[in-house]
Amino acid sequence: MKFALVLSLLIGFGPAGVQAQCRQALVLSLDVSGSVDSREYRLQLDGLASALIDPDVQNAILLQPGHPVHLAVYEWSGPKYQRLLLGWSKITSRETLFNVSSHLANLRRGPAPPGTALGKSMQYGVNLLANGPPCWKRTLDISGDGKSNFGPHPRDIRAGLPASSSPNAVTINALVIGSDAPVFGDTRQVEISELSAYFNAWVISGPDAFVETAIGFDDYHQAMVRKLLRELDTLAVSSLDPGPASPFQ
Predict the structure, then answer these.
(1) Nearest Cα residue to 228 out of 91, 34, 124, 122
(2) What is the DSSP letter of 206?
(3) Nearest to 171 by CA among 126, 136, 124, 139
(4) Is 38 within 8 Å of 217 (Cβ atoms)?
(5) Quick one: which H or E segment has residue 143?
(6) pLDDT recorded at residue 182
(7) Residue 2 contacts by C-beta under 8 Å, 6 or more apart in sequence?
(8) What tens-digit pLDDT sequence spans the chain (249 residues)?
(9) Which of 4, 54, 66, 203 is most buried (CB neighbours < 10 A)?
(10) What per-residue confidence (pLDDT) applies to 9?
(11) Predicted pLDDT at 7
């Protein structure tokens, strides 16, 4: 079973386009498992929608109009639930970005199973990137407030990814979300530290991978802004000429 999962991840990964005009393919995934209530769902989705039109994020996304960023968004919970919220969208203007933000803000929650199938979410996101636009950098963001409890373990999915040195490398980053309400003794920092360690150990992967944290869903917007700026900064240079060689070399 493990080898079948690994093989399925590798299907569709052709050589990265050396002359690709797309600067970055960015997939954003949202945790809608049973631990996420209706209020938290809206804070997460609206937080992403508003983060995308934060002035600094807008500037970072649109820094190089000739080399646009492509976005896709999905939500996930149990092993068989991955819902595409936004198909691949080339962001070429502020108007396009505002349209994406408005689309996300107007979505409504659908029925989803309560499980947390983190490994399957990773597999879905990686396959989405594999079938997406050829870009210099391919990034998957996993937002989550808990550890995987259904489906393949994240370590088995990560084991099947191309090596960081490969031109087909995928970066998986994470946004770990802590509890909103103070728990006994307000141990949220301990909880976040433990969950961050889990995502560091088993989820994040690839060049420049990192874990961002949100104290709770109320902090999701600001955490998403920080994460997007950090991700986009890796290729946000004032002058970029790909020339005949791949920027991964």
Answers:
(1) 91
(2) S
(3) 139
(4) no
(5) strand 135-144
(6) 59
(7) 152, 156, 159
(8) 443 443 344 334 444 444 568 999 999 999 999 889 999 999 999 999 999 999 999 999 999 989 999 999 999 999 999 999 999 999 999 999 999 999 999 999 988 998 999 999 999 999 999 999 999 999 999 999 999 999 999 999 999 887 777 777 899 999 999 876 655 556 667 888 999 999 999 999 998 899 999 988 999 999 999 999 999 975 544 334 443 333 332
(9) 203
(10) 42
(11) 34
Per-residue model confidence (pLDDT) at position 6: 39
Q: How far apart are CA 148 and CA 161, in angstroms?
A: 19
User: Which token pair is 117?
Assistant: 């199938």
Residues 6+ apart with CB under 8 A from 220: 43, 44, 47, 48, 143, 175, 177, 214
* Correct CATH for 2-9+35-139+149-233 of 3.40.50.410, 3.30.230.10, 1.10.3720.10, 3.10.520.10: 3.40.50.410
Is residue 193 exposed (0-12), middle (13-18) or buried (19+ Cβ within 10 Å)? middle
Contact of 223 with 175, CB cutoff 8 Å = yes
Please tell me the distance from the alpha carbon of residue 226 to that of residue 93, in angstroms, as a whole number.
Answer: 21
Q: Are 195 and 147 in contact (CB under 8 A)?
A: yes
Tokens of 2: 């493990």
Q: How far is CA 170 from CA 13, 108, 118, 124, 191, in A?
A: 10, 30, 17, 13, 28
Q: Name 66's Cβ contacts closer than 8 Å, sequence gap at least 6.
A: 21
Contact call for residues 225 and 56 (beta carbons, < 8 A): yes
